[in-house]
Amino acid sequence: TVKAVIFDLDGVLVDTAVYHFQAWHRLAEGLGYSFSLVDNEQLKGVSRIESLELILKWAGAKISDAEKADLLSLKNKWYLELIEQLSPDHLLSGSLDLLEKLQKKGIKIALGSASKNAMGILEKTGIISYFDALIDGNVVQLSKPNPAVFLKGAEALGIEPACCLVLEDAQAGIDAARAAGMQVIGIGQAEHLNGADLVVADLGALVDKF
Ligand code: B16
Ligand code: MG
């Protein structure tokens, strides 16, 4: 049985994955690398610094740590500009219905996101009050597929991992949930979500399961 649901943020609850893509695309352009949607798939759920390391590798660019730090703050500046107008309209289909349903059923709700911008996004979209525990990229340094972000969520809720269900849109997140010994449902296209117990198009498809 499921006693807690741990939500990924970008690409599951909120439509921010497209803004990460735009900001990385702009950064890669400056390195002379043409960053594709296929490349972007590999960055989903992956921390900011590890994402940059991958792009530098693809671009064949070698730069100093100081230059890396500059690029990271530039990427985040562009990303923050893109999400400045974020509102409840940017919640993905079914997000509110599912959060409401879980709360009504007494199922605990946690966030398990790699993002350091998670709190601002939850506030702008008006859903922060649904969460019993908030674990984000400021709390956990180890990036998905490491299970730390989800294990911390379970611990904060006081629920054993086997009774937690993770909802994820990224392969790295599916792998992290499995490594944590949790159930996991993929949100999106099955081809990018190997190892999920089930894959659905959006959260709306899950409302009647609880
Ligand atoms: P930030 P999630 C992840 O969020 C994104 O999928 C990933 O693209 C991003 O690089 C990472 O957060 C770090 O985000 O730059 O805002 O700290 O999907 O785990 O909610
Ligand atoms: Mg995600």
Automatic annotation (TrEMBL):
Keywords carried by this UniProt record: Isomerase
Source organism: Sphingobacterium zeae
Family the UniProt entry places it in: Belongs to the HAD-like hydrolase superfamily. CbbY/CbbZ/Gph/YieH family.
NCBIfam families associated with the record: bPGM (TIGR01990), HAD-SF-IA-v3 (TIGR01509), PGMB-YQAB-SF (TIGR02009)
Top EC class, one word: isomerase
InterPro entries, alphabetized: B-phosphoglucomutase_hydrolase, Beta-PGM, HAD-like_sf, HAD-like_SPP, HAD-SF_hydro_IA, HAD_sf, PGP-like_dom2
Gene3D superfamilies: HAD superfamily/HAD-like, Putative phosphatase, domain 2
Descriptive protein name: Beta-phosphoglucomutase
SUPFAM superfamilies linked to this entry: HAD-like
EC number: 5.4.2.6
UniProt-recorded Gene Ontology molecular function terms: beta-phosphoglucomutase activity
